[in-house]
Fold this sequence. Notes:
By secondary structure, this protein is an alpha/beta fold. It is 44% helix and 15% strand. It contains 15 helices and twelve strands. Helix 1 links the parallel strand 1 and strand 2 (26-30). Helix 14 (311-325) packs across helix 15 (337-347). The longest helix is centred in the middle third of the chain and has 20 residues, at 213-232. The protein is globular and about 60 Å long. The N and C termini lie far apart (53 Å).
Amino acid sequence: xINVLVVGAGAIGCLVGGQLATTGCQVTLLGRARLAQAxxxxxxxLQWPDGERQTVHPHTVENLADLADLATFELILxxxxxxxxxxAVRPLAGRLSSMARVLSLQNGVGNEEQIxxxxxxxxxxxxxxxxxxxxxxxxxxxxxxxxxxxxxASMTTGAVVGDIxxxxxxxxxxxxxxxxxxxxxxxxxxxxxxxNASSAILDMPPxxxxxxxxxxxxxxxxLRETVKVMAALDINVIALxxxxxxxxxxxxxxxxxxxxxxxxxxAMVGGRGDKLPSLQLDLRKGRNRSEVRVLNEVVALEGQKLxxxxxVNRGLSDILNGIVSGRLNWDDYRGKPDFLWAQIxxxxxxxxxx
Length: 354
């Protein structure tokens, strides 16, 4: 068993940390005061769709200062929002064992590189989780479907993956490993961008926004651009636990939108449903930062560097960043799919195809 510190004990951090605790791992959750109080009072409740329920009592702290010796931790799980990476990780510098591995289970591209800069010489692992996870109340974590799991890859030299994969498998997760962490993170990015930025801008659940033809065409455009950028960067699209991403990439290359709407709409609409995506939740909470910067904006910036046309990802990221910053009025876009389509067409000179 290993000694684990979870930095950013939200839904993902509590799920992974909690499941590891069920196997006998020593787990410490770094989270908010409400979480610490809830776990101290009644434990951390983990619920799976097959009816399995477990309650564990991991150690919980509100501040790193509450921990006497960070060098005792063998695995650090980073599960904070990407825009909080610097604040969360910087205090770890110089305080970890040189052998302690740091695993990012964050969404988006670029987190691992930032962590490596903040913790030079530390072994860094890249991870992706494809399970749908919710926290309906503080101290309760619900996995709504068994489809999915965790992908792992080494990001830096010496960051061994095998035993971590075994621990996660023993904790009940389906785990896959790959040799190229970029393929892992970019393939997960394809999942993350689907029905995310557009739903946030429109302030509509994906199950409603994606049934609109124009919105669905924007989603297909954003995915096609991502596949194109990945190919130019020599990054392979790989399968993730429960999700055949290479098949999707091939379909995007071969088939027109009219056919893809018939083939993919049920899966894309059903996959997101009425569960609000992360970018929309952040916007509703009034946060002045958005993870669109490590999702659609990354595709736009890399595409620009490569001289590729990426109008949909550029348009979605520019509009969402404009709303987050207050430069654009969110009410102008709420519930207006045709307006969003027209705005992206206008911004990019009519470059979006159907």
